[in-house]
Every structure is written in structure tokens, then in C-alpha cells.
Amino acid sequence: MKHNIIPKALRWMAAAGLCLAAAACSKDDIMPEPAPQQGITPTKIIFNVTRGGYEGDAETRAPKSEWAEGDVIYFGSSYYLNKATYTDGEWVVTMNDTFANGVTYISARYAEKVTDDTYNHLSIEHGDVAYTTSGTYEMDEGGVATITLRLDQHPQGRMTFTGVGKGKELTVRGMKYVSHFRCDESLPRYREAPITLTGEDDGTATLYALPTPPIVTEAGITLTVTYDGVVYTKTFAGKEFKENSNITLAAPSLEGGWAEAVTEYAAADLKMGDYLYSDGTTSDGGLRKLFPDGTVETATEAVAPEAGKTVIGIVFHAGRHATDASDYTKPLTAGGPTLAGEVRGYAVAITDATLRTSYGAKWVTGPNEEYDFRSGVSTDKYAWNGYANCRAIHDYVTAHAGEGWEMRHFQAAWSCETYGNRSLDYDGNPTSDYAWQAPLRAPAGTSGWFLPSVGQLYYMATCRDYLDSRFMAAKAASAAELQDYVKGFDTDSMCIYWSSTEDERSWYTDYAYDMSFSEPIYMTNMKRINYHAFTRPVIVF
Predict the structure, then answer these.
(1) What is the crossing angle of helices 464-477 and 454-462, to 10°?
(2) Measured between alpha carbons, how far is 59 from 56 in angstroms, rounded to an integer?
(3) pLDDT, tens digit, for every residue of 382-418?
(4) Which of 135, 224, 300, 364 could form a disulfide with 149 if both were Cys (CB 3.0 to 4.6 A apart)?
(5) Residue from 139, 511, 230 nearest 362 by CA
């Protein structure tokens, strides 16, 4: 919808800091105080803004056809210093940046749910987002200046579910939505998390998002949706959901071709929650049904570990994961354990590898405190390649041994691979602080303990509550000397767990991925950080 509305108030600030405020005027005459612009003072400013629609749609805010009270557009030649707010049917414009006459590269951004715009960095909740990089500024000989913006680019697709019902909730998984739009970055940042929608007055619920790679295959896009207390799944062949996409679906139902998403297990099946013992064997942990949202159904009676055995880990996945390309026939360390045969499953340690202090482990700090570099590990945040990442770190250390590099400089990875056998601190000095880990060392015929990838950590985080219950069952059966160490994932909001995955952004070579189990959400942190930065080893058997 096009608006040719003169703002009723205008504040104009020149780059030198001159601030000129226009008094409230009619739509026809805006008379700003004198402000030089190419030698001409605008006598009137017209603010034209239209919204290009998603595919096949004329407007971005469907089913709404008008701008909403309080909508804000941030625009400028750089850093989005200007702001237009839709108030009482008109645009109130605040100008802090001037334009040269005839420019055709004005950038503008709009987000439906901005929660913070400090320094023009937008923090955004789930909702519609649109932008342009080709806005124009024209001034005629009479001094009438026109700012024209067409917000026709969308960094998300739109998916509308019909028949949901007013006020009813529908949660979509496997998606990411725009959560930040910094003024100094051309592309937005996304957050991957379940997105809960609420049915509007007409019964529809609208999703603005992009699919994450795991739900997109050659077969199509597989949606997992929780609705009316049921978790549904359905694969849509030939469907593409990308920027500017516009898809309409009926609310999920079995009659509509959706299936209930659940995996069932027998006691004898290897599965999440099973116990891994120091002799390399496993036993049933009690899981009977696993849903994609991490909820579970367990055996009627609690299933405890086998008497007389030492639990060293909890299984979190059975079989080799599709995105794990690690070569487990090659040990991490000379003489270290090697996997015997095919991958049966993955298990996570029942304790952290780091000590229970405020200072855990840095991702890396070199002989000269280096941390801003690429080590050769993967930047794929979805892959289950923690072991391959750790081998890449070993390759880096070997290649730079002449410069004083040792594995202990990669503190996070080293704390995991020495779990159960550690006798040195990070400076290479002898210590007995980790002697308690000895009963938990890796059994023969396994991969040995290693630092997981962020993909592996994220999967565990989605099932955190159930895994925590298994940690507590293991704690109850553990020896007295381990009681103070066996625990679930730390869910304090300040705490993170390092992954072996580096930040994929080319200018963030000093960052690596970590996982917060409080929300849960993955993010990246500076590699030299160790405050509340812990490690939890995993093993393949």
C-alpha cells in the first residue's frame, strides 16, 4: 500500500550536529527551519513508502492491509540514522542524516516486533521483516524533497496455517527467524528455536522464518508441528521455503496427511537414555517413546543402572548420525583407543571435564596467547563431526609444533580427550585435581572422549530434561568419590559449554560456537573466554 503522507513533525540533524525541529503542520506544508542541503533548503518533504509483498501477495503484513500504529522504518545512507514512526495515520519522521540530491541507494529496514533499537541495532522477536537498499531522495527546483522507499525484500518466507482457531497455539520446529539486524551489517542474524504461533481472529496463524538444513532433503521439506497436544510431521515434496516465499497450509491433522511424530522403543533396543558402562557395555535406561520436541514416555517403573557396574556415560543417539563424516579408525592420540567396528551410538559423559569453579576452559590460547585464527575445524553448525574437528586440531598442533604449540593450548578439546587420564594443568604442570576422573576413562574399542560439535550439543539440549534425569539415576548408582561431580548440564544463564565448531563468519576468526543449556540456544563466543565456560565430553562406541 502506498502512502504519500507529509510527516506532521520533522527533526533534521546535519552531520555537523545542527539540529532543526519542524513544528506540527498540515499534510500539505512542512516547513523545516533552514538547513543547507546542496545549497537548497527543502520547503516540503514527502515520505513515500510502499511494501512489496511476498510471492503472489501485494502486502507484507497480510492479512492486514494497512500500516499499524507504532510501525517504525529505519533508513539512511549508512547506519540507518533516520526513523519514521507511523502515528495516528501519519508518518512522524526524525532525520539525523542528510542525503545528497538524487541518491538511489538509501537503505531501509522494517520489523514488525522490534524489542530494542539501541544504536540502531535491532533486536527482533518473531514476526515480519522487510528491507530495501535502493531508496531514493529527490528535490525539485521548488525545494520539495521526496523520500521514496519500497520495502520489497524479505529475509524470511511466510507460511500461513489456516483453521488453527482463534487463540489456539501451534508450534513449528526446525525453523530459524530473524532475531537481530545490526546497522553495521548488511544481512540479518537468525535464531534457531521452536516458534509458537497463536491463531488470530480469523483462525489463521502466520510463520515468518526459514528452514534449517536438517529439515530440507531431496524429498522436500519436512515440517514438525505441535498442535492440539499432538506432535505431527509431514514431508512436502517439491516445496521450497526461502526468502520471499509465500505458502498456505491447513492446520495439521491425520486426515490431512500428517502423521503423529513419535519413535517407539523396546527395552532391548539401543536408544537415548541407555547407560554406558566402563566395560563398554550398555543397558536399558527406560525410554519407550521419543517425540521430536524432546518429550518422552518412559517405562512404568524406573530403570536403574546394573548393580556392580560403573556408569560413565548416557547414550544420546543410536547408530551413526547422517551428518557425521568422522573417521573413527584413526585415534586422536598415539596409542589411544580406536573404535572397533561400526558406530553403535554416541554417549555423553556423566560429569563435566572441567572443574566446578567459575573459570572452566578457554577454547584456545596459544604459546603467545594467540586465539584469533582458523584452526581447520568445521564451521558447519549442523554437522555431528566433533571427532573430525578434534583430529583437525591435532593436525594444526602437529603443523605448528616448531612454534611451541601443544594440545593443551586448545584447552576445551584437551580437557575432553584427557578425561579420565589427566595429570597436567593447562600450563603443563603436574596436578592431582582431576584424579577423580580415573574411573570414567574411555573403554577399549571406543573412540575415546572428545569435544562435541555444536550440532551434537544442540541435539542433547533439545532433550536436556530427559538426559538430566538419566544423569541423576547414574549419580544415585555412582561411587561415593564421584557424588560431588556427577550432574546434569549447568543451566545457569551465565554458563556455556564449548563445542569444537568455529564461527562460520569470515571476520569472526576469534569466535567458536558454544551451547547454553538454559534456553537452550547455541551462539558464539570469543575463544579466549573461560569464565563460566565448561566442557562435557562425548564418546562413540
Answers:
(1) 90
(2) 9
(3) 999 999 999 999 999 999 999 999 999 999 999 999 9
(4) 135
(5) 511
Burial level of 36, CB count in 10 A (0-12/13-18/19+)?
Answer: exposed
Lookup: cell for 507: 571476520
Q: Which amino acid is at 360?
A: G
Residue 413: name the closest of 383, 429, 393 by CA.
393
3-state secondary structure 71-139: CEEEEECCCCCEEEEEECCEEEEEECCCCCCCCCCEEEEEECCEEECHHHCEEECCCCEEEEEEEEEEE
- Give the torsion sign (CA, 446, 447, 448, 452): negative
Ramachandran sector of residue 440 (left: φ over 0; alpha: ψ -120 to 50; beta: rest)? alpha
Q: Which of 77-88 are b and which e, b meaning 16 or more Cβ less than 10 Å from the residue's Cβ?
A: bebbbbbbbbee
In the block, which residue shows the cell 531508496?
135
Tell me, what's the pLDDT at 520? 85
SS3 388: helix
Q: How far apart are CA 77 and CA 99, in angstroms?
A: 7
DSSP for residue 187: S
Q: Residue 273's closest CA among 251, 242, 305, 245? A: 305
Q: Provide the grid cell at 308.
A: 556392580
Q: Which residues pair with 348 in a beta bridge?
A: 314, 538
Q: How far apart are CA 140 and CA 142, in angstroms?
A: 5
Among the listed residues 453, 449, 452, the one whose alpha carbon sits nearest the alpha carbon of residue 438: 449
Closest CA to 478 of 343, 339, 278: 278
Q: What single-letter amino acid sits at 85?
A: T
Consecutive 10-residue averages of pLDDT for the chain (541 residues): 35 30 33 44 82 77 67 92 92 88 95 94 96 94 92 96 98 97 92 95 97 93 96 93 95 96 97 98 98 93 96 98 95 87 97 94 98 97 97 97 98 98 97 98 96 97 96 97 96 96 95 94 95 98 97
Residue 83 CA to residue 109 CA, distance in Å, equals: 10
Q: Report pLDDT for 238.
A: 87
The 3-state DSSP class for residue 500 equals strand
CA distance 304 to 307: 8
- Cα angle, residue 164 at apex, residues 160 and 165 outer, rounded to 5°: 130
pLDDT tens across 279-315, in order?
A: 999 999 999 999 988 899 999 999 999 999 999 999 9
Q: Give the single-character DSSP code of 450.
A: B
Q: What pLDDT shows up at residue 110?
A: 96
The side-by-side arrangement of strands in the sheet containing 287-290 is 263-264, 287-290, 296-298
